[in-house]
Design goal:
Strand order of the largest sheet: 6-5-4-8-9-2-3-10
Strand content: 15-25%
Helix content: 25-40%
Distance between the termini: 59 Å
Radius of gyration: 29 Å
Shape: flat
Largest sheet: 8 strands, mixed
Number of strands: 13
């Protein structure tokens, strides 16, 4: 009888429910202090090596450090023999260097524009600008044993393109941070919408954006709605859902509503890989998935002020003006007698040239609304 195949991977797509703070406490009990240390490994190795040299030679630690610096491999090359590692020597007989030199010459002759892709540049900058960064003030240094959570925030459900499989943002948060800090750091185009119709007064400055008016929001984790109630105008957006669930036995158990500002991520109970919810602007819903929880490392960003830290952002193409096809749309019109489409999108220059005369008087019948393009976060 053939032996059954061994399953090396769990069949579930998510873990069991656990408390985040208890996970961190368990790790701290099992690990040694040096495992939790945020000191750079090179400094620790240098101190250990200097101590070994001092013990073997019978000298002081300062003398051992000086001897190691003088006898370092970096001092074996004299100043007049230093060469640029990128420069190819003329007298070299290596075939690989000869081919490389020809390839570089051909590249310089044929290349038209020598610049990196904007998406690659953006990704590199976001991933590298905070690696190993330490604060100037020691009070802002992240504590040893701090938990670091990785969250994927997806496009809102009302956004059709990429809504199911494209994370909108990837964010790092500390376990000791409050949920309100993550809520304030999340950027969404619906927060920047401007209400009102401006066809008669296109130069009138808007008084508010949506984020200033509708400040209510909540996170949903494991049967608990964490509502933002920091401002007097905030409403409990989860109340309708809870009343709907309690109207009959719908299988959701006893849903609760608490204040978001009273809880940190260490206080949460959740599952890694399980979809949760962030809701704002009434009905703008984002799926939030915790993909990783680990202890912070000395090579991570150690400046507490930079968290929540955005490390990845999806690149979205901007909507261009219907007329010039060059600039990003700033206006959208409805019922426009001068436009071939409804709705139709225009940049600011084309919108004014087409819809207003030299004195700024309105031409034709149309409704005009300010348009905020999702690609502005690129």
């Amino acid at each position: 009888m053939a032996a059954e195949a061994v399953e090396y991977e769990a069949g579930e797509t998510h873990t069991r429910v656990f408390r985040v703070g208890a996970l961190g406490s368990g790790w701290q009990q099992c690990l040694q202090p040096r495992d939790l240390s945020l000191a750079e490994e090179e400094e620790e190795e240098e101190e250990e090596a200097a101590g070994a040299v001092a013990e073997e030679l019978g000298c002081t630690a300062e003398t051992a450090v000086e001897l190691r610096a003088l006898c370092s491999v970096d001092t074996l090359v004299s100043a007049d023999q230093e060469r640029d590692p990128e420069a190819i020597p003329e007298d070299s007989g290596l075939e690989t260097l000869r081919f490389r030199k020809k390839a570089l010459q051909r590249r310089e002759e044929r290349i038209v524009v020598d610049r990196a892709c904007r998406q690659e540049t953006l990704t590199y900058e976001m991933e590298s600008h905070a690696i190993g960064k330490r604060p100037d003030d020691a009070a802002d240094l992240v504590e040893e044993g701090e938990l670091l959570l990785t969250l994927n925030v997806f496009y809102p459900v009302i956004f059709q393109k990429h809504k199911e499989h494209k994370p909108y943002q990837t964010v790092l948060v500390l376990g000791s941070q409050r949920l309100t800090e993550l809520r304030d750091s999340l950027s969404c185009v619906s927060d920047l919408q401007i209400g009102g119709e401006f066809s008669s007064e296109p130069d009138r400055a808007p008084e508010h954006i949506s984020k200033d008016i509708y400040k209510s929001a909540f996170f949903y984790f494991e049967g608990i709605f964490y509502n933002d109630s920091r401002y007097p105008e905030c409403r409990d957006l989860s109340r309708t859902i809870i009343e709907w669930s309690e109207s009959r036995d719908r299988g959701y158990g006893n849903l609760q509503s608490v204040k978001m500002e009273d809880y940190t991520f260490n206080d949460l109970s959740l599952r890694i890989g399980y979809p949760y919810l962030f809701c704002h602007q009434g009905d703008c819903e984002h799926i939030v998935i915790v993909t990783d929880i680990r202890l912070i490392h000395h090579e991570d960003c150690l400046d507490r002020n930079l968290y929540p830290l955005l490390i990845k952002k999806h690149w979205l193409c901007t909507r261009k003006c219907f007329v010039c096809k060059m600039y990003t749309a700033r206006w959208v019109t409805n019922k426009d007698s001068l436009a071939p489409e409804d709705p139709c999108f225009f940049c600011d220059v084309c919108f004014r040239m087409l819809h207003y005369d030299a004195e700024g008087n309105k031409l034709g019948d149309f409704l005009a609304y300010p348009y905020v393009d999702p690609g502005i976060f690129n």
